[in-house]
Task: structure prediction
Amino acid sequence: MTSAEQVAIAVPTGALHDGALSLLARSGLARLGAEELGRQLLVERDGLRVILVRPSDVPAYVDHGAADLGIVGKDILWETPGAHYELVDLRFGGCRLVLAVPDASSLDGPETWPPMIRVATKYPRTAAAWFESRGQAVEVVQLHGSVELAPQVGLVDGIVDLTATGRTLRDNRLRITAVLGTSTARLIANQASLKTRTAAVQSVVARMRKASSDAG
Amino acid sequence: MWPRPGGFFTSANPSATPQLGGVPGFRDLLPLEAEILREAQESLLGEMRRWGYRHVITPLVESMDVLDVGLGIEQRRRLFKFTDGRGDVVALVGERTVPVARLVAGKLRAAALPLRLCYAGPVLSTDEGRFQQRRETYQVGAELVGASGPVADAEVIALAARCMEATGIRRYQIDVGHAEFFQGIMDAVKLPDDVKAAVRSALAARDFVALESLLEDTPLKSAEHELLLRFPALRGGAEILDAAGGLVRNRRSEAALAELARVRELLVAHGIGEVVNLDLGAIRDFDYYTGVIFEGYGPDFGRPVAQGGRYDGLLERFGRPAPATGFMVQLDLVSEMLTRAPRPPALPRLDAALAWSGPGLSTALRLGSTLRLFGMRAVVDTEARSTSEANAWWHAVGAANLVHCLSDSVVAWSATGQRTRRLPPEQVAARLAGGVS
Result:
């Protein structure tokens, strides 16, 4: 638990990590080296407590109130909607959630889809909702890694995956046929923190909002 | 002492035995947790009684016909439904305000309004919830039916505050808002209907990034736009009403602000001005609430533990139009908060462990009756024990005193931190009942 004035923020490992630390520094909140946080996982500085967690765990820390704020990709929020407030588009870590099929596949636009399309993904909820909203029957195979492999060995017709540059897809001879959504890093907040420690939390939010819009 | 939850009671059951862990989403409450929960429930009901709220008990099962009238589609979806022997569809209750409304419009139709009623009981949901995979939770609530206006609103808010206090929660806070403030803005703001719908759903999802981009794309900018964008930050004391008053240009919102100002004054008179914050950006089920709404927060807890507000439309749907306001306290969250507090509530422990050997049994039984007559908690052993066995049993049951009954006339009395004394049973009873240990 945090004290009345200290604000705790959950920062993700992975693709958004460097951007998150750089934003904290630009906001004048905390200057942290990646190695320092990687070693300790929890660093307290200048009234800010920074917690390093896996990207998909950020909403859990925030929803339960272990962190007042969290930096998390919108892609994670699609999969795990929670009780938090989504406050600011931090405008970094941009990427797209796409439907990709093998280069050789005949699949392209919706008119070419089979009556039941099979896709592999790490985003089962988002993928299912997207196809369903288009009246397309879908069988979602949830995988936890190397999703690109699945269509090449005939497990599925295509994949729904996140891509920033499209390079991994090209390397695996996959082409994009649809974009399900675009994602950037977001600042989320615990609902009770906003209510019970408004001043302290809002001041951190305001500084991060400013720093992110200055950069954008 | 009893083991803490998650201790040896729940572990180590071989996989071949029946489902000793229970059904997923449903929890056993072990003695410590169950006792804290029950104490908290009695404190809440006791406070409600002191404010003149009469206790009602409605069934765990309600007819779907009734629930259809009172609940939204999302709430209905989460109900455990089944058919009873006659083929009627019934459900386990997911909240208890609708059953109380049914009661007021039905069996209590002849009772004069306003009615003050309170209830306590479990509620069930097929949804395991975002937080702790619980499908059964406990709610204690109060409803004031038949009274409109700020005096009634302030009464239930003050009652909610005193209820939180009564359970022993320290440093709590009540956030008060108004459903009409938002409705007025939505009326006034010039947006196409589909954008308005999107604004509502973005707010319901607390997604301010989506809200911002929706409003950015609209050509018309107004003070109301500005208010929507600042929604999560519209909090504070009386000054926030003036600030918002300068921005809104519609009757509904202005009336809401005036009502909030009056409620705030009354809450100060109730003596709880200190714990009240105004929150114009409170986001709740706007289809259900029609006026002043509020939430209660405890210290360092990520969720509201109490919530309520005015719902003037519900009773009408049951054929007895009446204004109403009320709230419910999430009893399991309260007890969780109390369990985790720096100083958990001191629950009465066992006063006496009565062991016996050979001829001492009848003495032990007699002594047990006497002590209980004085309101003490005494447990009599089920088998004869030697002195060392009795000591081990004493520590296992965790009582303040051990009385080892050796015969009709002599008992060995040990109190925590004192040497053992041999005395006649009457003397021990007198000393224990007299509070001397």
Notes: The longest strand of chain B covers residues 115-124. Residues 350-433 of chain B form a domain with the Rossmann fold fold (CATH 3.40.50.800). Chain B has two domains: 31-340, 350-433.
